[in-house]
Structures are given as structure tokens and as C-alpha cells.
Design goal:
By secondary structure, the protein is α/β, with parallel strands linked by helices. The chain has helices spanning 5-13, 30-40, 46-60, 75-78, 113-118, 136-155, 177-194, 229-241, 256-269, 280-283, 287-293, 295-316; strands at 21-25, 66-69, 86-90, 123-129, 160-165, 203-206, 247-250, 275-278.
Length: 338
């Protein structure tokens, strides 16, 4: 494995000194706007979206190696991040195409990798909804979509972070027991697919392969068993075994306690994950504070509860592996193309 100078610079910009990724995510758009509107009982302006993202960025990036933002409402916030924190920018439209089956993705119409890089991005992030169990036509379209982005990132010599979120192609809820039973195969199958060189993915941003609410004997267990603790740990190992590229975990909207417990399982299982890109598990409980009390109160909340939440996550990253270690290198520079 070799790496180009631009990709090396981008990876180093979003990593800690030891090559792990302790990034915060603040690229939520549609879901954030809906949550804020519900909490305040009224419309949410563009200025409010920018203000919320700026508060999160200013406070949390002093404890993060990078921040993930969107170019729609996040660019003002990107200018206020800690100087030591790198910047990832999202390239995809929020949500997915609901006019056709398969949760098909789309890109922001007025942006390109070239433009995102010019706006200050050290890395590009794209989210798709994916399951190996959807139809061949749906997945072929998604494969081609990712291939094109990989080529665009290669051309612009910038790292490509691919986030894939599983779903039930038959329309069931991903929060239910039935989906929990197949989630390990969805995650492992997705990692096996997008680790292939043809996609040009530099880092896979993945879900934990189990739903902690259905792991017997854990603090998050709700009473219906999909897996024992030993089975859950094995699912972490099997998913990780499919990866030939560095991968980091996403929080997928769960609570801070549940995400921290997931990372504890990752550590106990012995898998070589390279960090996290953690969003709502850090700041979502502050939404009603901002919505009802405003920016100043929200910043106070972030300085206490928000920093406590990100500290809980960072504590689990002491056992994370450097991304370059995945390739058997002792340093990032050892991978540099001659």
C-alpha cells in the first residue's frame, strides 16, 4: 500500500498525533432541522442552523482531531474550529431519493470534490444507505455511484471517507428486533464490498455490527435477546475481518452511554478500529436547550455535558489503532508514494 502526498496530508490533518481519528460530526441537516423545529415548536431559520453548528464546532473541536460539517450550513462554523482540528466536508444530499425504491443517494448539486477542497476540506465524506440484500439493480447503481466519487477524490488527491448505513429493503424498522438479527450480516457484507480497491475508499465509516439494546447482559439490554455477549463480540470480529482498509465507528444517533458501551465491546473484541466520527451521541441532548433557551445556554451545556460526552468517547479511543497500522506501516510517511 502506498499513499499520495495529498491523501497523506488530508489523513494527517484529521488524525491525532498517533494516527487515530477522534472526529466530531456536525453535518446533520434535515434531521437536525426537524429536531430543532419540534423542540421549539416553530420554524428553524438558516441563521439558527449556522449558529447551532458554530457552537458545537467552537466548543467540541478543542477535544477532537477533526470536525465533519456540511457546505450548506456548516461553512461559517468551519472557520471557527480549533486550529488543530481538521475538516471533513459532506458531499451528499441529506436523506435519500424517496421516489424510487432502494434509498438511492444523490450529491449536492452545486458542489464537487474540487469545490469542497477549495472550501477548506481536508477530506471528503459521502453517506449512502446500503445493504447487500437489496436488489442487484439497486446495488449496481450504488456501486457505480461510489466508484465515480472515488475517482473524483483520486483526481483531486484528497481522502475519501465512505459512510454506509444499513436498512431493511422490505421496509422494516432498523430499530426493531428482527433487523437486529440480520444487522451483523448487513454490516460485515457492506464492509467486505466497499473495502475493494475499485471504490477508492480511504476510510470506511461503519456502524457497530450489533444493536446494543438486544445484547443480553448489558446495561442497554431491553429484554429481548438477539445475541449473547460472546456472540456480539464475535460479530465485531467477523465484520472487522472483512476490512482491508481503515475503518472508524459512527454513533448512528444512539445515546452517549450506548455508543460508549459499543466502543467498549470493540476494544474487548480486539478489533483494529481506527477511531470514531461521533455526532449526536455527543450533542443531541442539547437540542432542547438551544431551542428553548438560545445560543448562550446551549454553549454552557456544551461546556459541561457536551465535553463530558466527548470525553467518554475519547476515553475508549486509547485502544484504537492508527490508520496506517492497518497497512502494516510504522508511520504515515512510510506509506508515501516515492
Amino acid at each position: 500500500m502506498k499513499i499520495t502526498p495529498g491523501k497523506l496530508a488530508g489523513m494527517k490533518a484529521v488524525s491525532t498525533d498517533r494516527g487515530t481519528i477522534a472526529a466530531a460530526a456536525m453535518d446533520q441537516r434535515g434531521s437536525l432541522k426537524k429536531a430543532l423545529a419540534k423542540a421549539r415548536g416553530g420554524d428553524v431559520t438558516d441563521g439558527m442552523m449556522e449558529e447551532f453548528k458554530t457552537a458545537v464546532t467552537e466548543v467540541l473541536t478543542s477535544h477532537a482531531s477533526a470536525i465533519l460539517l456540511d457546505p450548506q450550513w456548516g461553512l461559517p462554523a468551519s472557520k471557527q474550529r480549533n486550529p488543530n482540528a481538521g475538516l471533513l466536508l459532506a458531499y451528499e444530499e441529506s436523506g435519500y431519493d424517496n421516489t424510487r425504491p432502494g434509498r438511492l443517494p444523490d450529491l449536492l448539486p452545486f458542489w464537487s470534490v474540487r469545490r469542497l477542497k477549495a472550501a477548506g476540506a481536508n477530506c471528503i465524506k459521502v453517506l449512502i444507505y446500503y445493504t447487500p440484500f437489496d436488489t442487484k439493480d439497486v446495488n449496481d447503481e450504488k456501486h457505480a455511484f461510489v466508484e465515480r466519487i472515488g475517482d473524483e477524490c483520486r483526481t483531486n488527491d484528497i481522502p475519501f471517507f465512505l459512510e454506509f448505513v444499513g436498512y431493511d429493503p422490505k421496509g422494516g424498522s432498523e430499530k426493531e428486533f428482527k433487523y437486529a438479527q440480520i444487522k451483523p450480516r448487513v454490516v460485515a457484507g457492506s464492509m467486505a464490498e466497499f473495502t475493494k480497491p475499485k471504490y477508492g475508499v480511504d476510510v470506511m465509516k461503519v456502524e457497530v455490527p450489533v444493536n446494543m439494546k438486544f445484547v443480553e447482559g448489558t446495561a442497554n439490554f431491553t429484554g429481548e435477546k438477539a445475541y449473547s455477549k460472546a456472540q456480539a463480540l464475535d460479530h465485531f470480529r467477523k465484520a472487522a475481518a472483512a476490512a482491508t482498509k481503515p475503518f472508524i465507528y459512527l454513533s448512528a444517533g444512539v445515546s452517549n452511554a450506548e455508543f460508549t458501551a459499543s466502543l467498549e465491546f470493540a476494544v474487548e473484541s480486539g478489533v483494529k478500529f481506527s477511531g470514531v466520527l461521533c455526532g449526536r451521541a455527543t450533542w443531541k441532548d442539547g437540542i432542547p436547550v438551544y431551542a428553548t433557551q438560545g445560543d448562550s445556554a446551549f454553549r454552557d451545556w456544551l461546556q459541561t455535558e457536551g465535553l463530558k460526552n466527548i470525553g467518554n468517547v475519547n476515553q475508549q479511543l486509547t485502544e484504537a489503532s492508527s490508520w496506517f497500522e492497518v497497512y502494516g506501516a510504522s508511520s504515515a510517511e512510510a506509506l508515501l508514494t516515492a
